[in-house]
Amino acid sequence: MGGAVQNNTLPATFSNVSTVVGIAAVGDRVKTVPTFSDYTAARIPPVNMGLPIGITTIDGKTFFVLDNYSNRIHIVTLDASGAATSVRTLRTAAATPADIVFNNPAGITSDGKNLYVTDTSNYTIDKIALTVDSSGRYTGTVSVLAGSSGTSGAIDGTGNTTTTTTTNGTTTNSTTIGAARFGAPIGITTDGTNLYVVDNQTVRKITLVPDGGTPQVTTLAGSLGATGSTDSTDGKGTSARFNTPLRITTDGTNLYVTDFYNYTIRKVSIATGLVTRIAGTIGTYGTNSAVSVASGDRALFNGPNGITTDGTYLYVTDWGRDIYNAPGRGQVVFRIVLTSSGFSGEVTRIAGTQDTFGFDTGTVSALGAYFCAPMGITTDGIGLYVTDSQNYTIRRIK
After folding, report:
1. Domain of life of the organism in this record (predicted)?
2. Residue 64 and residue 72: Cα distance in Å, rounded?
């Protein structure tokens, strides 16, 4: 669910952090032209990543990494020990495969069969139907699920309808653009029935329908373009306000949103849209004086970014505003105990050196590890996988 393996609670403590893919502090982002190429090996591939910011999994063994700099998705396959055996770029399923390319993509999730991407600077939500070719490699067929490429807006309404026809062995997709428009879609998750997208100070819902059907886009929480910090005041999600919400996850009952410049974690009821703050102090950033604090109302964040859940806990990447063009505060990963109501339970730093960015080589202790702008995060049911964006690596916490 939501591109993560759930209902398998992760360990109470984490021992180490290791690099799965990438070369620490060496990335394509510093080059004029990306030089990523497919890699297959028995050990950790020496792959130069661009700017990995999103990560999702379909089965806990195959991960799809959203590379914002190259505007592509890289497929990372792990062996039984957790080492990466191959890294490939996701390509089309055509007779002559081509890279699937986006325009400043920000978020990625999966329902186990398809990928969904927020194609931010195209203002669209894209669906990639996955298939496996004769060599056992994943390929994809792309369609625009909602929004109009190149046209921004703040409009609820119909999504897009894609019709597939086959003539003389040639398959053609025809898309009818609906009324819905997006302003800056970033985070995305799914419960298998709907997609939930963080866009322009709101959480929006897109119904998932069979191929050929028309999705519907509605605003579940927040008000398009309006910033603030209030929870729902009238029992409705649209009365709530966010301040640069970034990413989102779900346990099937609620959505959990990182509200970056409010320095909080917000819960949104899927059934009602009701928004409540469960962790963090509104408008106050900072560092917790201990590794753990007793409950969410006592926690401080510097800029909560990525978020995932195993169904029992939330896991949040946290780093603050740039300082002289370098990420500064935070640089850590937190675990948050979910509760049925009110504020969350205990908030614990499980990885990273607080308020210090840097890079590591090899395997290091979890609380002594260095990150540099950690963003996306997911779980395979055993450990956590983090896109350590400005270290150009994928890190594993176990």
Report:
1. Bacteria
2. 10
Contact criterion met (CB below 8 Å) for 346 and 12: no
How far apart are the C-alpha atoms of 197 and 304, rounded to whole Å? Answer: 17
For 245, the 3-state DSSP assignment is: strand
Task: Tell me the pLDDT tens digit for each residue of 154-179.
Answer: 999 999 998 777 776 666 778 899 99
Q: How would you class 12 by CB atoms within 10 Å of its CB: exposed for 0-12, middle for 13-18, buried for 19 or more? A: exposed
- Of 246, 272, 264, 267, nearest to 256 by C-alpha is 267
Q: Which residues pair with 302 in a beta bridge?
A: none
pTM attached to this predicted model: 0.94
DSSP 257: E
Mean pLDDT value of segment 114-138: 94
Spatial separation of the C-alpha atoms in residues 374 and 357, rounded to whole Å: 10
Query: Looking at the predicted structure, is the pLDDT value of residue 354 above 60?
Result: yes
pLDDT averaged over every residue in the chain: 90
Q: Please determine, for residue 46, whether its predicted confidence score (pLDDT) is greater than 70.
A: no
Task: Count the Cβ atoms, other than its own, within 10 Å of residue 109.
Answer: 31
Own/partner contacts of 319-325, CB < 8 Å, gap of 24 or more, are 319/357, 319/371, 319/373, 319/374, 320/285
What is the mean pLDDT of the segment spanning 366-374? Answer: 95
Is residue 55 within 8 Å of 65, Cβ to Cβ? yes
List own/partner pairs for 259-262 with CB under 8 A and 24 or more apart.
Answer: 259/229, 259/304, 260/303, 260/304, 260/305, 261/303, 262/229
Residue 340 CB contacts under 8 Å (≥ 6 apart), including other chains:
none
Q: What torsion, rounded to 10 degrees, do the Cα atoms 104, 155, 263, 307 define?
A: -60
Of 74, 84, 83, 23, the residue nearest 48 (C-alpha): 23
b/e for 137-174, b at 16 or more Cβ within 10 A? bbbbbbbbbbbbeeebebbeebbbbbeeeeeeeeeeee
Mean pLDDT of 358-362: 88
The count of other CB atoms within 10 Å of the CB of residue 236 is: 14
